[in-house]
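Job type: complex structure
Entries:
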Amino acid sequence: MTILLLFLIGIPMLGSLLVWLADTIREGSSKYIGVGSILTVTILAMIINIQSVTGRIDTTSFEIIHWILGRSATLGFYLSTDSLGLFMALIATVLGLLIALFSFEYMDDDEHLSRYWFYLQLFISGMVLLVLAADLIAMYIGWEMVGLCSFGLISHWHTRPGVEGEKVAKAGIKAFVFTRIGDIGFLVAIVMIYSAIGSVKFDIIMESTALLSSSYVKIIAWGILLAAFGKSAQFPFIPWLSSPESIDIDAMQGPTTVSALIHAATMVKAGVYLISRSYLLFELWTYPTFTWTLIIVAGITALITAISAITSDDIKRILAYSTISQLAYMFLAMGLAYTGKASGDSHYADLGFYAAQGHLLSHALFKSLLFLTAGYVIHKYGSRKITDLRGILSIKDEPVGLIGFVIGGLALIGLPPLNGFFSKELIISTAFEMLLDGLQPPLTLFVYLVSFTTALLTAIYVTRLLFYLYFPVEETVDGHDHDYPIMTAVILLLSGLTLIGGILVVGLPLHFGDIISVNYHFPQGMGLLNLFIILLLIGITMYLTVRYLRQIEHTDRSRGKIQQSLIMTAEQGFYIDHGWSYGWKWVKQLISFVSKSHSGNLNHMVMMATLVAGTVLVILIGGSL
Amino acid sequence: MDQNFTIWLIGAFLVFIVGIYGLITKKDGIKQLISIELLVTSTNMVFIGTGYLFSDRNTLMQSFTLLSLSVGGAIVGLGLAILTIRFQRLRSVDVTEHILLRG
């Protein structure tokens, strides 16, 4: 089993190194290695999962290597096969395989194909390491690896000439720097845990949570919150994943397959995974500010990114804002789990955890479906703006795009019987039931209202997207007449998975048998009424959106000043990105004097060195003289 | 400790100060090299003084001083090589000219 786990991480890494070799032997053969290695890893992950579910694995922590052997400190490298890790590993590998197959054709005419496949396989390796790690250092290594590969993949087209290439390069750096700020939090948390408990292994941490005094818990909680928010692009770290039209430097500068894999299906879920893992490891609910911050920040993010999606004109931008909004849903669900644990109610805690993982699964499916279909459409019709792509989806001319967008879009809204319905209603119903039961009313009320409102806002922007893409106008663009068999197959496969995905969400407690003890139950009584009202309101919202859009098509819209400024704010992403740019200019001003003292003059350098050395000597020895 | 040793140590410190002064003030490359050699000399003086302290027990510090002298020679050799190449390229040994490491 240790060997199998090592292969799970090592094979993509080996594949990423072999890419260079393959490219020198035969031009363009790197994609075969890429797909081959990811296919192998997917099969391995499924085998390990089946073995784990049928109970053939007795221990869950496997030591790979004993790393630092000191007298007072030892650090090892451990991998685990517990249900949470295997769940995420399966999602990462299966979606990685589908997206790798898609990029077989999508990236076919790219000139730097080997670099793409190098980073892609390294990413899969890092992601699997992140989720399967059984100690914090291995998890941190995986965390950094996916951050690095995200940087490499976003700036894949930095060789484009002129301003275009510069924007792409800046986008990659922006993504890396923003997540780096979160990494500081993670590192602080790891150091605090090590200094309090003396080990970073998960099983030792789980046994000795009593050793964490309340001040330690506070620092660890803030560190983990910072890391999760940074990686999953919640407020205020939104700009690296999606920025307003006027700035346009964000993770969507990368190829659409990269957006599907990294920024919809896997890497941004690492923040949710960190919070889920912390739910199992520590008892962070004893620090109520943690739960409050988690829920409030996630709620704010859900609302403002949904509003920004309504006013965006670029398909990828809409989908990026939508991803951030749905990630906030997962954070809200984990917040419910923490609230349940804080009130001592393990039923609701389990439900919250189940809801978060369920939404993670269904979001991974339908969001990657949406991104891949968007990539297919962008590739075929050559534009990213929905105003250019009006009316391209029709049963006759573009059935694949129609199926992909409609199924993905309706799943995103949360209509039955698609998988999005099951996971979203789980979150909203859990919040509603907790509210009725009187658990921490301000928090649960907030979660309920936010998830309710965001569902309606989601309905608005998805309907707007489908409206623009479906209803034809006179000048509908024509696409290339190529045949894309593999891309079509992947989109249809993902659509099928999304259609039957409800079964996966409902059956999830079987997988998480060792962590949660609830089962899926369809809401009854007041919950059923609540569900019915929500579905009705979503339907009404969709109808009103279509009617409004039809109306403004024919009439000349003259908006009031307030309406105009509101739309402007939403369009500019609520000025978060501008805030970061302004802050960066201010920081540069502050440190400019340090920059000026670096004159390169040898005399100045020696003088400064002498001053510093003299000061240190005086401080150290002066006391005893 | 010994009176003699203290005086010797103060002497080494004075030489050290002169060397630092030369590094800070002089802008000629060769003068800076001389200052660096003065710093090395001061540490050699410290080694010799320590050898005087332990001269009745062993001759360890004498070996150490020989080692330090050879290292000092290597330092000067390297410094002269750098200055020679710089003079060949830029026709000047002034350290305040041709600065590329500007921050």
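Summary: Chain B is about 75% helix and 0% strand. The mean pLDDT of chain B is 91.
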